Amino acid sequence: MNRCSIFFSDHCFRVFSHRSHLGFASNYLPLFCLRRFLSQGHSISGSTDARPFPDYSPKKPTIRDSEFIHQISTVIKLRRSEPLRRILKPYESKFRPDHLIWVLMDIKNDYKLVLDFFDWVCLQRDPTLEARCIVVQIAVASKDLKLAHELIREFWAKPNLDIGLSYSHFVDRLIYTYKDWGSEPYVFDIFFQVLVEAGLFNEARKFFDKLSNYGLIISVKSCNLLLTCLSNNSDGIEMAIKVFNEYPESGVCWNTASYNIIIHSLCQLGKIKEAHNSLVQMELRGLMPDVVSYGTIISGYCHLGELKKVLKLIEEMQIKGLKSNPYTYNSIILLLCKAGKVVEAEKVFREMMNKGIFPDNVVYTTLVDGFCKLGNVPTAYRLLDEMKARKIVPDCIAYTAIIHGFCQTGKMMEAVKLFREMISGGLEPDEFTYTALIDGYCKAGEMKEAFALHNQMVQTGITPNVVTYTALADGLCKRGEVDTANELLHEMREKGLQLNVCTYNSIVNGLCKAGNLVQAVKLMKEMEMAGFHPDTITYTTLMDAYCKMGEMATAHELLREMLDKGLQPTIVTFNVLMNGFCMSGMLDDGERLLKWMLEKGIKPNATTYNSLMKHYCIRNNMRATTEIYKCMSAQGVMPDSNTYNILIKGHCKARNMKEAWFLHREVVEKGFDLTASSYNSLIRGFYKRKKFMEARELFEEMRKQGLTAEKDIYNIFVDMNFEEGNMEITLELCDEAIEKCLVDKAMNENT
User: Where exactly are the transmembrane stretches of this chain (predicted)?
Assistant: First the structure.
């Protein structure tokens, strides 16, 4: 008695008791409903629930047919080396479809001969469905799974097929021929796979249920195919989850791949907590989650912004010895960038590279965009250079992010240089790239260049959008050219572009910047008459203008009006008020506002703290400044470039040069920019302390950055180099001072 017969005792299933099939069947033990039936005290075939497969009883051949079949079988066996088309030529006219099955009975143990003969028959006419199923059974028994799959797929690929009728006939023939022609259960898996691949999901599920009546279940591998195909279709995800929940009742034992498919499906539906529960369920059932399991859930939590849960899952992975893959790292980097934690994102990025996982264009672009939004354009530019060094071609999005960053910081020369580099590299700028540059020119007051670029944009065939025109109108308003801005708005309407709240807000902002508050308030009323309700940005813009004029009472009145209309203030609104208090010398009111914000759960940002620190520094109160900075750090608010510049100048003014030097090093490490005034303060401070080496180092660093030192700083180093006998450097600095200080001063006076 073989091992399967022993296992199933007297109730052995036929497919296992046959010695020739033992090896193949044992490889597919997951096919059978062992857990369900054995746990209930039943064997597979001995169970009263399991229906026996029908015996195969085809029509018997007549004596004449038997003689004809014998002749064909004999000739193809004896002359097998010759082409069948030639040796069977005399038999073609008398050959009928039912002859095929009778010949197959004679030659079924010779697989090559079966295939050759079947091919010959197919050249004459289409074989019957029964004959096709028989050859499929023989192919599976001979381990030729690929051919079996093709034969079934060919049938379902026929045009104008009645799916319902064809399904019923095929299943009946496949079950009918199973017992005597192959008895290999994997034949049903192949049929199931073809149904799934053809998108016949309902038929596949019906077949699964029908097969369970015979005591067989489809393998987990094939069931995973069904889950995958269902989850790839938005309409099929719910069905995939239903299948996953129901099939274990029939004996399917899901594996890690199965859970991964369902975890992905739940994440697609936004059910991240349920997906996480499935991960826990996996382990309770003795399955080990892999990198894909964790990566999918990490990505889901990243989309929700749940950083704490992401970090906890990464810790779990590390404990289990699982290494994060590029997909996981990409998700984490994207989440950190969205949360404004770009420095941490780069640390994860470097960790990823240290582990031998090389980033692609998407990861680099995410970081570049993140640093640009943080205002740290130099680091973004460094990453762009790194991309190019690694032969990763930056795309339009990466270039546009840095161009926008340069424009926002007023570095138009660098922005234009990058724009030209982008075009020479074969990349085509889109409306966002052009708009970023146009907006930069408008903010710099260079309206001639802005309109020239607008014309170039149109000539290239790119249609300016509402944001493009809004930037131009904003620039005109800042120059006091309100009538021209209104003409531009009319042009927008003529081109079919709809004015929106953003357009009006931009013009209100332009009028406020130009000091024309009367016109700004008038436009706000016109905006309401046109059916556009002023929003938080509109009110915040006007409040900012009044705060800068020291009219805090009017600013408060606008805030009350805004709240009465149900509009919620943003952090920018509070920053405007904070700046107003500080500019008016009302620092106590500013601190009270900060305390109130923290009590109400409104998280301040770097700008909020910067306003207070700046004005305490102006008063030379570094103790209060340091307290504010400590409060900022305690709240987890990351300092920005402005924070560092304020602190450095404050400490220099208070002669705390050790602290100023430490902050300077931190700025360099984090890739932020120091302003010219910060460098001037540091150099003066060190020079007065007779720290000439540090002063000289900072002066050279400043020159490398392309920043202009003040006249007295140049005088210091001209005298220093002259005394040291460095005449060449002395003359160079004299020329530089004349060019940068005197020429710049003359230009400023002329403008």
Answer: none
The pLDDT value recorded for residue 22 is 29
Residue 725 forms part of a structural domain: no
Domain interval for residue 587: 535-638
- Give the per-residue pLDDT at 610: 93
Whether the per-residue pLDDT at 9 is higher than 80: the answer is no
Characterize 324-355 residue by residue with b for buried, 16 or more Cβ atoms within 10 angstroms of its Cβ, and e for exposed: beeebbbbbbbbbbbebbbbbbbebbeebeee
Q: Report the sign of the C-alpha dihedral through residues 94, 100, 106, 107, in that order.
A: positive
Q: Output phi, psi for 216, to 5 deg.
A: -120, 150
Amino acid at 622: M
For all residues of the chain together, what is the average pLDDT? Answer: 85
User: Which of residues 246 and 496 earns the better pLDDT score?
Assistant: 246
* pLDDT, tens digit, 9 for 90 and up, residues 701-720: 888 888 888 888 888 888 88
Cα separation, 465 vs 462, whole angstroms: 9
Distance set, CA 595 to CA 539, 577, 599, 608, 618 (Å): 23, 14, 6, 12, 22
CATH of residue 561: 1.25.40.10
Render pLDDT for 26-77 as a digit per residue (tens, 0 to 9): 333 333 333 333 333 333 333 446 789 999 888 888 999 899 999 999 999 8
- Cα–Cα dist 751/56, whole Å: 103
CB contact set of 345 (below 8 Å; sequence gap of 6+) = 332, 333, 336, 337, 366, 367, 370
User: Is-contact 132 119, C-beta < 8 A?
Assistant: no
Given a contact cutoff of 8 angstroms between Cβ atoms, the answer to whether 577 and 559 are in contact is yes
Of 742, 739, 690, which is closest to residue 716 (Cα–Cα)?
A: 690
Give, in order, the Cα–Cα distances in Å from 267 to each of 287, 293, 298, 363, 750.
20, 11, 10, 22, 63
Of residues 113, 154, 111, the one with CA closest to residue 132: 154
Residue 606 domain-assigned (yes or no): yes
Residue 651's H or E segment, with its range, is helix 641-653
pLDDT per residue over 624-676, tens digit each? Answer: 999 999 999 898 888 888 999 999 999 999 999 999 999 998 888 888 888 89
Given a cut of 80, whether residue 563 has pLDDT beyond it is: yes
Spatial distance between the Cα atoms of 209 and 212, rounded to a whole number of angstroms: 5
Yes or no: say if 434 and 453 are a contact pair by the CB < 8 Å rule.
Answer: yes
Q: Which residue has the tokens 């002329």?
A: 750
Residue 546 and residue 555 in contact, taking contact as beta carbons nearer than 8 Å: yes
Number of domains in the chain: 1
Which position has the token pair 């008063």? 619
- State the DSSP string of 575-620: HHHHHHHHHTT-HHHHHHHHHHHHHTT----HHHHHHHHHHHHHTT
Q: Is residue 558 part of a domain?
A: yes
The amino acid at 164: G
pLDDT at 470: 85
Cα→Cα distances 667→339, 581, 640, 645, Å: 21, 28, 9, 9
The answer to whether residue 248 sits within a structural domain is: no
Could you say which DSSP state residue 216 is in?
B
Measured N-to-C along each axis, helices 587-599 and 606-618 cross at an angle, to the nearest 10 degrees, of 160
Length of the chain: 751
Q: Scanning the structure block, which residue is given the tokens 């000091």?
A: 515
